[in-house]
Amino acid sequence: MRGRINAGLVAGGVLVGLVVLAAVVSFFWTPHDPTLVDAARKLREPGGGYLLGADKFGRDTFSQLMVGARTTLYVGIVAVGIAAVLGTPLGMAAGMTPRGWLSELIMRVNDLVFAFPALLLAVMLGAVYGAGTLTAMIAIGVATVPAFARVARAATLQVMVTDYVLAARAAGRGRAAIAVRHVLPNIGSVLIVQASVSFAIAILAEAALSFLGFGTRPPTPSWGRMLQESQELLFSTPRLALWPGLAIALAVLGFNLLGDGLRDYLDPKLRRIRAEG
């Protein structure tokens, strides 16, 4: 039985939907070319076809925000995908053999990877392979693997003591069959919630890496690099930092609300505990 759709889930869904809508529309239409440098329109104020004005290079801010949403979602999807594909099987394997050497090895390596933040990993990969979107995606994805592994392991441990799994083991089913048929479908909701929360973290990480020059390279628009380019004009033209900062904040808020709402919706028992507390 699932819980009711709450306000947080709706609000998160709306915010995430707006980001996705902007990204999808940017494939077909933007008010102006987001990469076109026009010195005549440098620091143009909002109005006259420029909804949010232009930056110090004369590029349309609104168009950059739209394409930046596409970049953000692209990095988030790939990074979370890497983390889920690597972390989920590792966590399931550790959870299905809780007292074995394999579980101990997986979790100790997991702790080691967890000690390396995405930023440091991106700097290391950038020094070897060069900074860019691919480097950012790999760094964020690898740094997020431990979160998926831990969540998958904890959920697997709960599933492995259920009657239907015990019956499957008594019937002689192998571990692979149990994992695919019984464990994975029953931990899917937990992984969906973790993916939503990890997406918010990936957005922040991508923006931070682009701000520091280790993320998306020019001329591809990025919210983080828009912030970096606006810092020298922060006091004279604060709107240049306002819009990308607001976009990052709303996107992160949306995915966090979506993850929290999904957690309550998919686990009504947790929702009741919070209400009683």
What features would you describe in this structure?
Helix 1 (7-26) crosses helix 9 (239-266), helix 2 packs parallel to helix 5 (133-159) and helix 8 runs antiparallel to helix 9 (239-266). It is built from ten helices and no strands. The chain has a single domain (7-23, 54-268), classed as MetI-like fold (Orthogonal Bundle), CATH 1.10.3720. The protein has 277 residues and is mainly α. It has helices spanning 7-26, 61-96, 101-114, 118-129, 133-159, 163-170, 175-212, 223-230, 239-266, 268-276. The model is unreliable at 270-277 (pLDDT under 50).
Give keywords:
single chain, 277 residues, mainly alpha, MetI-like fold, elongated
N-to-C span: 21 Å
Q: Spans with pLDDT under 50 lasting ≥5 residues?
A: 270-277
Percent helix range: over 70%
Helix/strand structural class: mainly alpha
CATH topology: MetI-like fold
Strand residue content:
under 5%
Query: Total helix count?
Result: 10
Gyration radius (Cα, Å) is 22 Å
CATH structural architecture: Orthogonal Bundle
Order of helices and strands: HHHHHHHHHH
Number of strands: 0
CATH superfamily: MetI-like
Count of spatially separate domains: 1
Shape: elongated
CATH class category label: Mainly Alpha
pLDDT averaged residue by residue: 87
